[in-house]
Amino acid sequence: MNLRVILDIFSGLPNPQWQLGVEQSLAMVSLVSGLSAAEPGAMPPLPDLGYRGFEISGFEGSCTTYRIFRGYVDACGTILQDPTRQAEPWLLHTGEKILDPGLYAELLTEFTDK
Known about the structure:
Elements: E1 4-7, E2 17-19, H1 22-33, E3 36-37, E4 54-57, E5 65-69, E6 72-75, E7 78-81, H2 87-94, H3 101-112
Antiparallel strand pairs: 1-2, 1-4, 3-7, 4-5, 5-6, 6-7
């Protein structure tokens, strides 16, 4: 299994995307599998501009695409909580080599300043 990651950040430009290797994909599945359910409506709404999270596709099962945003995971309407925000910086790190260094640094503050 190889998951595809899209960093949802740009409007009018293509969003950066990359493929996770098998080991990274298994680590992502393990990370998400360990999360607990959140209260309904807990996930913050996506802003119109700027950082809107990560979209990860290629999961097995009935829900193949997840969105990870500000400490929550939307798995086809099932909301999970990631209170320590492990998933977002981990995903960002997997794309470090393809992302613009300034964008990478800016996003690091998104995860550490909140």
